[in-house]
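TL;DR need structure tokens for one chain.
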Amino acid sequence: MNSSAVADAGGPNFQPVRTRRAFEAVCDQVRRQVADGTLLPGQRLPGERELAERFGISRSGVREALRSLELAGLVEARTGASGGFFIRSSGSDGVTQAVRDMVALGQVPTASVTEARIEVTNVALRLAAQRATKEELDAIEADIEHHAALFKAGHGSRNTRALTEFYRLLARATHNEVIVMLIDALSEITRTLLARIDPQPFPEIIQVRRKVLKHLRAGEPEKACAAMAAHFRNLNRYLEEKPWAQGAAGAAGTAAQAVAKAAGAARKAAAPAAAAGARKAAARKPG
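>> reply
TL;DR here they are.
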């Protein structure tokens, strides 16, 4: 049977590939058919054996391609009787994981993430100031007050994605789907990095968000941008003070932390009064 002729009616039309890196050609074909709408979100890909026949490659090559597409966030694996590989709905998860991994491996500094976050958020704030409806601004305010109540009750936590809902609502107020994905990805990356250091954000974050919303309601996007950028830079300084929170620097950071702890214990034993004074003078952590 000619493998190039094997295709479901109205389904994807995969062609055999002849290349030393066959899995890359497979990935390219899947990406192209997702882009042109032949493959739709939620659609199940043919099974491994059928894909191998259609592409004219080994099943191991198919598995490698599927793993690559899954890591890129283009497909997802589901288990069970009706399981298999499915085209993912559009979203930022693939971008988020890719950048988070690069930061953890030391390939991207946190300063670069912060710089990108500031610039993208500035665009979002300027567009939101022009396009946001009253209902969208009210939704942002409701989210702020929801988290204010959580913090007051001692339940604020970075260990939940709900903490970044403020940025997602802000991005949606731009009415631009690409900005929504970028904002969501950058916010989630920063949240997870901070959660490794301390899961408890400081309530000052509520003050910043209220200030940003106040400027948006007043039609002052540049003031909103300045307030948000200052907050992001403050978070970045906090992250850079804690290199052990990043995977690439884990071993070195742990060793440095142990040395610092030992040195602190020695100083405390030698001069308890000075150590106590230093602790009282320590700056508070940012939210």
